[in-house]
Amino acid sequence: MTGTAEAPAATPALERLRDELTALELTLETPGAAAGRAMRDEVAGQVGDYLLPRLAQMDAPLLMVVGGSTGAGKSTLVNSLVGAQVTTAGVLRPTTRAPVLACNPGDVRWFENDRILPALHRTTGGPAGPGGLQLVPTDGLPAGVALLDAPDIDSVVEANRALAAQLLAAADSWLFVTTAARYADAVPWDMLQSARDRGTSLSLVLDRVPPDAVDEVSGHLRQMLAERGLADTPLLAVHETALEDGLLPAADLAPVRAWLDDLAADAQARAGVVRRTLRGALESLPRRVGVVDAALAEQLALGETLDATVDGAYRDALEEVDATVRSGSLLRGEVLARWHDVVGTGDIMKSIETRVGWLRDRVRALVTGQPAPDAELRTAVRSGVEAVVQAAADHAAEQVAERWRREPAGRALLVAVPRAEQASPELKDGLDAMVRDWQGHVFELVRREAAGKRTTARLASLGVNGAGLTVMIAVFASTGGLTGAEIVVAGGTSAVGQRLLEAIFGDQAVRTLAARAREDLLARVERLFAAEARRFTAPLDAVLPAAGARERLAAALGDLERVG
Questions:
Q1: C-alpha to C-alpha distance for 259 and 261, rounded to whole angstroms
Q2: I want to staple 105 with a disulfide (CB 3.0 to 4.6 A). Which of 23, 137, 484, 485 is the partner?
Q3: Contact status, residue 296 vs residue 25, Cβ threshold 8 Å
């Protein structure tokens, strides 16, 4: 895949890989997120800035990027090789504010369009501003080789460091400049290691070497290069000397000058450098994309964990509501008092077996003649259900917030969830409407059941409201159906409701109505909880990688490997 013959096959695969990487979001703050984002940007940038342009035009001049640390003498070296002050050099830092590309006038056509580094606008005749690339045609450079002076790799300005990395990724070759005083610094070696990992052709200039220490310093540097798998790197030493009009004296520049002229004069050697870098970049893609894929997998796994936390908390909350409804605890307090007001207790309980008709008349009188107890019972039931659901929702929110805070990414997401430790303020209004709707549904169930059993007269004697409220009480009185001792809750009061409904619908209808009413209640609560859960899952979904991102990335890389 290193020659023009392979370019047509490789180009679509590279474009697809670039597009997948560019579209990939790695927003969650997982342990590998920063490395994944950096590698994503690095690979996507190199594909767009170097691989695609180079495969499209293999005969373009060799682009050599001159890079290094602050104060290493990059700009002075470029100016000296060109023979003129084409790029700023000085004591103020950062000095290289925008990249400068110097080339032979006959080669300008290769660089004045967006063939390489398409995001940088071109200027000539003066310094480029931010986001620009200054082109400097000069007879001081032979045709076939262009020099690009990059910002400092350790610049105090983050944008300069990022631009330096971008330019180095777009190079056919690096001319890396370090000094006798700083060649062992960590930052340059990180960049040199990156060049090795990418397979980029590399040459090293050891600048400002005291003449009496050339052998010692060069020998130590060569040893360090060998230890890091860079033993074949050309090493060019420049003596420490006084500048002449801001340029290195010709004698001190001679090793670099001769090396560059030889390269420019040998088209085959230049082509070998290009092929070596191109091959190295292509072969490094699976490993480097693997770093991105690992970060992506980490994001997806954490997303599943955070989502499962929400799902589990609200599933537990629903089970909590169900258990409370089944336990009969709602038949205490206000609900029990209002139920007594509606159906009566005492003598009614004792005579229920033989006086169903009398009880029916008593309930009819109470429901139709005295509506206040009926309405108060309905309100008490509504308040009881609301309290149970509200408590479960608060507990679920508290659980989610507590568990999410254990993860840096979860803590960041909670910023987007107001009052994360409690149910949302909107729950109260939704809860009130939900319980009212549920009560209306229960009344409708009773009405439909009566219409299908020719019990209209009996139903009329009790009233839909009375029967409906009795079904609601039956829902709270049962753990497994309205039979036997299970329904005798709160001192046996629920037995009144059972016998009343059995007198109208029969015992099977009682069990069926209670079960259906409870299922409907839980279904409505589940919908409310789903809305509550979305407070957490919505901001999570907004930052998760797009569905199928990992599969598409693997497919894009697979396409590239097949054509290679």
A1: 6
A2: 137
A3: no
> Is residue 531 classed exposed, middle or buried when 0-12, 13-18 and 19+ CB atoms within 10 A define those classes?
middle
Q: Are 326 and 494 in contact (CB under 8 A)?
A: no
Q: What is the pLDDT of residues 436-468, one digit of tens each?
A: 999 899 888 888 876 665 444 444 455 667 667
What pairs with residue 67 in β-bridges?
A: 176
Give per-residue pLDDT as tens, 132-172: 899 999 999 999 999 999 888 888 888 888 888 888 888 99
Sheet of 235-239: strands edge to edge?
121-124, 132-137, 100-103, 145-149, 62-68, 173-179, 201-209, 235-239
Please give the single-letter amino acid code of residue 556.
A
Residues 6+ apart with CB under 8 A from 24: 40, 292, 296, 545, 546, 549, 553
Task: Give the distance from CA 43 to its chain's centroid.
Answer: 19
Q: Tokens 């319980």 map to which residue?
A: 435
Residues whose CB is less than 8 angstroms from the CB of residue 227 and which lie 6 or more positions away in sequence, other chains included: none
List the one residue out of 319, 360, 361, 375 whose CA is nearest residue 499: 360
Cβ atoms of 498 and 488 within 8 Å: the answer is no
Tokens at residue 499, please?
Answer: 């016998």
Query: What is the per-residue DSSP string for 453-505?
Result: TT-HHHHHHH-HHHHHHHHHHHHHT-SSSS-GGGG--TTTHHHHHHHHHHHHH
For the cut 50, the answer to whether the pLDDT of residue 359 exceeds it is no
Question: What's the pLDDT at 462?
Answer: 52
CATH 3.90.360.10 fits 60-265, yes or no: no
Query: Are the beta carbons of 377 and 469 closer than 8 angstroms?
Result: yes
Q: What is the pLDDT of residues 206-238, one digit of tens each?
A: 999 999 999 999 999 999 999 988 999 999 999
The residue type at 317: A
Residue with tokens 């050339």: 214
CB hemisphere CA count around 228 (13 angstroms): 20
Beta-carbon count within 10 A of 167 CB: 27
Residue pair 482/510 in contact (Cβ under 8 Å)? The answer is yes
Instruction: Give how far Cα 543 sits from Cα of 28, 36, 536, Å.
Output: 7, 15, 12
- Residue matched to tokens 């409907």: 520
Write down the pTM of the prediction: 0.77
> Looking at the predicted structure, is the pLDDT value of residue 328 above 50?
yes
Contact present, 293 and 20 (Cβ < 8 Å): no
In the block, residue with structure tokens 């170097």? 50
The dihedrals phi and psi of 237, each to the nearest 5 degrees, come to -100, 135
What is the pLDDT at residue 6?
53
Q: How far is CA 537 from CA 296, 395, 460, 509, in A?
A: 19, 17, 49, 41
User: Which of these, 125, 121, 73, lies nearest to 95 by C-alpha position?
Assistant: 73
